[in-house]
Write a structure and sequence with these properties.
Layout lengths: L1 H25 L4 H9 L3 H23 L4 H13 L1 H14 L4 H6 L4
Helix pairs in contact: 1-5, 2-3, 3-4
């Protein structure tokens, strides 16, 4: 569990640093670029579409794990937009909340 927590910390810090840098250089207007690539039907668009569907799946898991409560739906919506910027810290939090119990971490209210 400590190795997993370490990985989550590295992912959270690196994606945060990368995001801050990109925002400082290019601003927050990502939607036209992101969806424009998808519309172009290129490999970059395929990657963006694949990534977007992964975000939807991770958001659905966050919502399902929380029993589709108002809080879990809100967290899922955040996950669907922020991706790993949200997901790594969220999983790190869950590793402590569940005291490292992987079944509880994965299943949440369904345990």
């Amino acid at each position: 569990m400590n190795a997993f927590r370490g990985l989550l910390i590295v992912l959270a810090l690196t994606i945060a640093a990368f995001t801050v840098y990109v925002i400082s250089k290019f601003g927050l207007n990502i939607a036209p670029i992101f969806f424009g690539e998808i519309q172009s039907l290129t490999w970059a668009g395929q990657f963006n579409y694949d990534f977007m569907t992964y975000l939807w799946l991770s958001a659905l898991w966050v919502m399902w794990r929380g029993g589709f409560s108002a809080q879990s739906i809100l967290l899922g919506l955040v996950a669907s937009v922020l991706g790993m910027t949200f997901f790594a810290p969220y999983l790190l939090f869950l590793t402590f909340q569940t005291k490292g119990n992987i079944k509880q971490l994965l299943l949440g209210k369904h345990l």
